[in-house]
Amino acid sequence: MTTSLADVASSNAALRAFLHGLPGVDRVGADQRAAMLGTRSIKTTAKAQAIDLAISMVDLTTLEGADTPGKVRAMSTKAMHPGEGAPRVAAVCVYPDLVHVAVETLKGSGVKVASVSTAFPSGRSSLEVKVSDTALAVAAGADEIDMVIDRGAFLSGDYLKVYEEIVAVKAACGDAHLKVILETGELATYDNVRRASWLAMIAGGDFIKTSTGKVQPAATLPVTLIMLEAVRDFRATTGTQIGVKPAGGIRTTKDAIKMLVLVNETVGDDWLSPDWFRLGASTLLNDLLMQRQKLTTGRYAGPDYFTLD
Fold first, then answer.
1. pLDDT category, 78, cuts 50, 70, 90?
2. Is residue 8 part of a domain?
């Protein structure tokens, strides 16, 4: 933190004063800018590059109660080899009890293993359970942890509790990177999205993430725009760069390219990398591969051509 942020987390009152002192979000302006950027067209050569970049940013995800070791192995294999000539994805994201399966399958591939934790997706558990949940995933080999904030505490104004939980989970991560899920669909206002983004960054999150994918609306363009503006302003204030991960509802190549345009126009090339921008998705990859094949061969492959995730 810089000197100006050093005392922000000294009390709930100090956090409240800082977060509520952030500039308010012009909702109409944010919606209009996101809509305008969403209409940008990309020509064939640039589109091919954008598709490969999007593939390299995907956190290929399965977070269902019916997940099995076999499904995780199959998904991990696809993550390493999505299609002929296609880049590998950024990470595979699974529940903590299946981390070891992904680690074994992905060993040496360069694909990261991410795990949700902290009583995902509700976050309704004690801090002790949340820290233990995180520590178990890290011990199993997770490179990245996707935690959920306590939205009830945030919405009731208990910012210090949210801050302290993020700090504790970050400590339990050790060398693993921490993505902080805001669950923007439950935050009600764009001002809250901006405040939650700053709170997560001040507490030490390496990434801020829109959603669990279990609540709608999830990764909308305006919400992602606000979070991108937050990381831009945070770097300008502190010198520290934080990543952004929209997740939930990103299903098509068109959706993914809109996100990349948003990144380029809002924060620039510094974030156009899997190190700083991810796309959390379970079905997006197949559409990216279909569009990629169309550009390469001139023919669409049917959805049955690709494995289901």
1. very high
2. no
Q: What is the DSSP letter of 277?
A: B
- 286 lies in a domain? yes
In the predicted model, what is the mean pLDDT of residues 58-81?
A: 97
Contact indicator for 169, 131 with CB cutoff of 8 Å: yes
**Cβ pair 161, 126 in contact under 8 A:** no
- Domain total of the chain: 1
Rounded to whole angstroms, the Cα distance separating 39 from 147 reads: 33
CA distance 283 to 179: 21
- Written as six digits, the tokens of 85 are 């000539």
Q: What angle do CA 216, 219, 223 make, to 5 degrees?
A: 105
In which band, very low, low, confident or very high, does the pLDDT at 243 lie, cut at 50, 70 and 90? very high
Average pLDDT, the chain: 94
The pLDDT value recorded for residue 1 is: 45
**Residue 111 located in a structural domain:** yes
CA distance 204 to 179: 10
Q: Would 21 be classed as within a structural domain?
A: no
Q: Domain of 33: which CATH number?
A: 3.20.20.70
- Segment 126-151 shows an average pLDDT of 98
Of 195, 243, 194, whose CA–CA distance to 222 is shortest? 194
Answer whether 309's CB lies under 8 Å from 283's CB.
yes
Q: 256 near 283, Cβ under 8 Å?
A: no
Whole-number Å distance between alpha carbons of 49 and 57: 13
Radius of gyration of the chain from its Cα atoms, rounded to whole angstroms: 19
Residues with catalytic roles: 146, 209, 245
Range of the domain at 235: 29-57+70-297
Convert the pLDDT of each residue in 193-212 to its tens digit.
999 999 999 999 999 999 99
Contact indicator for 187, 223 with CB cutoff of 8 Å: no
Give dist(CA 251, CA 72) in Å, integer. Answer: 20
